[in-house]
Write a structure and sequence with these properties.
Blueprint lengths: L2 H16 L3 H4 L16 E5 L2 E4 H13 L6 H21 L6 H14 L4 H10 L4 H26 L3 H10 L7 E12 L7 H17 L6 H5 L5 E10 L5 H9 L9 E3 L2 E13 L2 H10 L5 H22 L2 E3 L1
Antiparallel strand pairs: 1-2, 1-7, 3-4, 3-6, 5-6
Helix pairs in contact: 1-7, 1-13, 3-4, 4-7, 5-7, 7-13, 8-12
């Protein structure tokens, strides 16, 4: 079992629980949620990152939309402090959720609830949540599931000695997996220039190159003279270690061919499969044995929850949290 699946299930379950009953709320009066706009005032500082009264009001409205009871402002503040701890950790680990992933998840939520994106935007604004706040929430959920996956891999890796013992028990048979040699092509879009028009233009340029792509050996010559295009040789990666956001595409991509383009934090990019081979060695055995045997989906979700709670507790103990 690949932990990417486990963390994905955990992420989906969280989102499903959070949004249970949201559709029913769309029929409620808008005036129930709207309030007087307030100037932003810092209420909490988490590791030098501010949380304002506006953030808390947005989250309290979000909780109200979920029909939560009790002191919503207190619950909202607690949630935002925990999310900020997660965001800081995600940044320190280099975990980035692309705009495309967030927009896709946002649009998917609208579709599942029989709304257009415009209607969901309207609901979020009328409820006092704002699309931006909702999308930030989605980003944290997606990124945190990846952080949990990384933590699992570091804590759950079987020792080399145990892997050898396992192979001996299996009659000396070593498991096998695919090894990919990858190349990355990035059409860079600086954050300050990240408009819808610019992204669409770069996406079109990336697709044009993708359609002309012939091999990893000729990529640099093909991109010579193109503005703000970076080509990187990423080396070899086992199938079990492919990034979740690229894994499905890479497995379906033939050798010498590129994946579809994706919007990322760097701009617009695609990966190319330069080579692929089957490998079977002690490293593969160690990784394979470490990733298997985690049980049913319920067991996987329970394990993910345990890792998440422990992780957040550690972050909170090390954090500097100041209430204003």
């Amino acid at each position: 079992m690949k932990f990417a699946t486990m963390s994905m299930n955990f992420n989906k379950r969280i989102l499903a629980a959070v949004f249970a009953g949201t559709v029913a709320m769309t029929a409620l009066s808008v005036t129930e949620f709207t309030g007087t706009a307030k100037a932003a005032e810092i209420k909490v500082i988490v590791n030098s990152n501010p949380i304002t009264n506006v953030d808390i009001a947005n989250r309290a409205a979000f909780l109200k939309l979920q029909r939560r009871g009790g002191n919503l402002n207190k619950q909202a503040q607690d949630e935002l402090v925990e999310e900020m701890l997660k965001r800081v950790e995600m940044k320190s680990r280099g975990i980035v959720v692309s705009d495309q992933e967030i927009e896709t998840a946002y649009a998917g939520f609208a579709s599942r609830n029989k709304m257009s994106v415009a209607q969901l935007n309207q609901l979020m604004n009328q409820a006092g949540i704002t699309p931006k706040h909702f999308k930030t929430f989605i980003m944290v959920q997606m990124g945190w599931s990846r952080a949990i996956g990384a933590r699992f891999r570091s804590e759950g890796m079987m020792s080399e000695q145990d892997a050898v013992q396992r192979m001996l028990k299996d009659g000396g048979k070593k498991p096998s997996t695919s090894e990919y040699t990858l190349q990355q092509v990035i059409f860079v879009v600086p954050a300050a220039s990240r408009s819808a028009g610019t992204m669409a233009k770069r996406r079109s340029e990336a697709n044009a190159l993708r359609n002309r792509f012939s091999s990893c050996e000729t990529t640099r010559s093909q991109t010579k003279g193109m503005l703000d295009v970076t080509v990187r040789d990423l080396g070899k990666h086992l199938e079990l270690q492919l990034p979740p956001e690229w894994s499905k595409q890479l497995k379906a991509t033939a050798v010498g061919r590129p994946t579809a383009v994706q919007d990322t934090d760097k701009g617009v990019e695609f990966l190319a499969v330069c080579a692929k081979r089957t490998v079977s060695d002690d490293r593969v055995a160690q990784l394979t044995f470490s990733m298997e045997g985690t049980g049913s989906n319920a067991d996987q979700e329970k394990k993910a929850e345990e890792i998440s709670k422990k992780y957040v507790k550690e972050l909170r103990e090390k954090a500097k949290i100041v209430n204003r």
